[in-house]
Amino acid sequence: MKDFLEMRNIVKRFPGVVANNRVNLTIRAGEIHALLGENGAGKSTLMQILYGFHSMDSGEIRMDGKQIRLDSPKDAIALGIGMVHQEFMLVRPFTVVENTVLGMREGRGPLLDLEQASRKLQELSNRHGLALDPAARVGSLPIGVQQRVEILKLLYRDASLLILDEPTAVLTPQEKDQLFAILRKLKQDGRSVVIVTHKLKEIMECADRVTVMRDGQVVATREVRETSEHELTRLMVGRDVNLRAIKPERKPGAAVLQVKDLRVEDESGREKVCGLSLEVHAGEILGVAGVDGNGQSELAEALLHLRRIEGGQVIVNGADVTSRSVAEHRAGGISYVPADRRRVGSVPEMSVADNAILGQQRKYVRGLFRDLDEARKSAEKLTARFGIRGSGIDQGAGKLSGGNLQKLILGREILRGSAVLVVEQPTRGLDVGAVESVWQELIRARQEGKAILLISAELDELLNLADRIAVMFEGRIMGIVDAVAASVEVIGLMMAGIRPAGAANTGATMKEAPSGETV
Amino acid sequence: MARLFERRLVPADSPAAIMATTSAAFLAAMLAAAFLFVSYDASPFQAYYALFHEPFATLRGFGYSLVRASPLALIALGTIVSWRSGFSYLGFEGCFVVGAAAAGWVALLTAQGAAIGPIPFILFLPLAILAAYLAGGAWAGIVGLVRARLGGNEVLISLMSNYVAIFILQYLVSGPLRAPGSLPESRLFPKGSWLPFILPGTRAHAGILIAIAAAGIVWVLLKKMPLGYEFIVTGFSPSAARYAGIDVGRRLLLASFFAGGLGGVAGLTEALGSQHRLMDGISGGVGFVGIVVALLARLNPLAVIPTALLYGGMSVGADAMQRRASIPSSITFILQSLAVLLVLAFDVLRYYKINFDFRRGTPSSTAPQVSE
User: Fold this and answer.
1) Total domains in the fold of chain B
2) Mean pLDDT of all residues belonging to chain B
3) Helix B92-109 to helix B286-296 angle, to the nearest 10 degrees?
4) Residues 257-286, chain A: which have Cβ within 8 Å of B?
5) Is the pLDDT confidence value at A514 over 60?
């Protein structure tokens, strides 16, 4: 296979940092090339240079041996380089064909020729196995299909290099498989694909070659069939990491958190949690799996009463706490680690010390005044106990890295000593080292007998940490499986709303489980 | 690629850095304004001498500076309380007016033969402060209530409410409180209700002491009390505040009440300290200048008193300048505005550091780090 595109000695500086430091990358015609690296390793910057979003400070880009200039995404598209962003750039009320021709002149004269565009789309869709209807409204399509519309947009512009930024973040396992099948077809077609990711499994599954970046530099490029997950991790992190959580045996105790027939609505009044019931026992981690947006966040917020409960009951240690206020929950009962670390879980503008007492500001009080000494002492204890690295407790919390900030929030919520811990997406966007320590802390809290509700979109995380896994789909629990016995396929089906015949049925909503409803 | 000025990722936020950029901005404003003086054939040095000599180097002038500074400082403190709580209140002109009216009303009640009659100043003052505080607090509290309960826009509502307050005072001084036969203004308050003069031979009154005490209280509230912590969390991030169990709506309401009360007391110092009667136009824009003072003081309660003194002193000096160097006093207004603009604009300097080694071509030690 010949080299199709070559990036040589790319240097890109941002104020005070070198995001890309003499980076070399070659992409062959007809290959799937994975770009692997932790957050901040410089892989997004590199791809944005290739897509014409950023200008480089020095270096050169060659395509088929000829040097090219990329001053804007327009140049990139003209040269056949296209990008699918993590956030899709689609107009939801438009149809597939309308979205596709957006920004292009189709047909002769001032009128759009959508007919002809539709025919071309249909043909492209058939050839690449995208299974898309050009007349469908984008807003009504599932996420996985919307992603295919993005790909189709690039094919319509005859892109020969497709860059996909974290393409699987929002997909169910089945949608992921479909995506990989499409990518393989594109490859056979002679096109090149770059996927930017930090998920090793997916690289092993679909990529031909992988380039690993760390600290703005390329560490290595490997043929996927000649490398292993283990080696890639070491290359990416710079040391050996054991991403297997070792979970000691532990008999779960009594049911601490009981949720009965919970109903919650979102801002627009749509029901997001529809009669959900579950139980979490002392010393148990109950995982909640599901594609983002199936009511997991609303469930967590409702437990804390950050969102109004329309119906049902929340019981902690036998006491009905359904109507307690957030402040009362915070005083005892339920702790919460929210998904949004920087906007909800902490106040980045305030110091680490001030963030360490967030939610307990009325506890560190002497008379009328804040007990600053006591608060500082507990902040010191927190940073020491959870290994939070930074320049001390007077530093602004916003200056902490994502992993350290998460440890601060998690540690604060664990040390509050409440019986129930609700944790939402605890490792989203964290690098491998930080993931490891967050996992350790969660297991430790489990050993201490807390009842933990772990909401996560990462199946790996759930399979490693949880004792049981409940799968949520459209506000309901599709089924609860033992983590030891769970298979990714079964969970994946339930995430897509399909209840496999063998899954354990629990809770009131499961009674009607139809045996005929299969794939 | 070494450069003389290297960009920082985060601004330098040490007190020294802030002092340095603020002073530099002020000097730059004075330099720019100097060209305006030249256009009047006046020496900028003489003009600046006149501008600063009278208010800060003469006893009489300093007295006037204190008089001007008191309401400015109180309104700036109110601004700090509300803005740090995330409540963008702009209605201090109104609070000032209703506060002045409430204090004046109490003062008139203590006149010979009025409802209360003469009472000792030690009893009168707390009563008057309470009245002014409640009036100003309620005035701003209404806006806080609309924002907290109905989600209204406090910027618009508070701006408009200023006019309502001004018209209420107009009604009072041309109707129920009007002194017989004269201009639309109230009777002179009884002597026993005047704020005592504190510097012999000047007009300086105890209002500045009230302002200093208020600065201390606001500082303690925001820095030392759990309520202040909750205000600040609410101001930075309402969603984090809700998460922390803070009742955001109630905190907004409370902050608006506290802030408005301070604005009301500002009205009290003007009415009982320097005018000694109620009249139309008593506020004269202090409610807005006070907000500017708060911005110049960078929302730091302890920096408010010196900033207000500087700002108030400059307006005293402006008149002296007009007299002594025949330069229109409005140039001072231009100078003040330039100072505000440049102090805010010079913030960008805190994003740079000077790289003394740049000639040797080595980027300074902190440069080549990699982050996202």
Assistant:
1) 2
2) 88
3) 120
4) none
5) no
